[in-house]
Design brief:
Keywords: Electron transport, Heme, Iron, Metal-binding, Periplasm, Signal, Transport
Main location: periplasm
Protein name: Cytochrome c4
Radius of gyration: 16 Å
CATH class of the largest domain: Mainly Alpha
Number of domains: 2
Helix content: 40-55%
Number of strands: 0
Order of helices and strands: HHHHHHHHHHH
CATH architecture of the largest domain: Orthogonal Bundle
Distance between the termini: 27 Å
Subcellular location: Periplasm
GO molecular function: electron transfer activity; heme binding; iron ion binding
Number of helices: 11
Length: about 200
Amino acid sequence: MKKIVCVLISAVFSLCVSISVLAQGDAAAGQAKATLCASCHGQDGNSALAMNPKLAGQNAGYLSKQLRDFKSGARPSPTMSAMVASLSDTDIADISAWYASQEITIGAAQNEGIELAQTIYRAGIKDLAVAACSACHSPTGQGNAQAGFAAIGGQHAEYTLLQLKAFRSGERANDASGMMRTITERLTDPELEALSNYLSGLN
């Protein structure tokens, strides 16, 4: 557990430093620049397709980092890399500000696995040194904007599960200090599925 705590502290510090230097974007300008994004993520950032993430209400700093990671290749995605290739830092900040200003629509989680997921989310798994998800993502799933931790409450369960498995396999590796990879490699498929379902209705 001490190792996980140290990793969390290190990750929070590094994220706070990096995010503090980011310029705040112009949401109004971002709305116009996000026109192409709407076909996959919805006009207001609430995507209709479960495999495409909802961007509405996401922390601007987190969104900016993901867009920069797509552009640099730190987060591989042929589709997203092509979409962001021509974006400037100002464009990225503006688009992120626009989606952050929108309100996410919260779905309804299925009852199956709720108690298991709630326990992991709120308390973690001590015997496996798995920290509580709420420590970084907040009890309501709104994340931590200052530290750059994602808002995950209300996200499509299918998309969340895909990302958790990508972290576990190492396919996605743009998490600070390998924190998400460390946690997910200790969780089973049923636990990841339960968490993804639980988060879809969390607010």
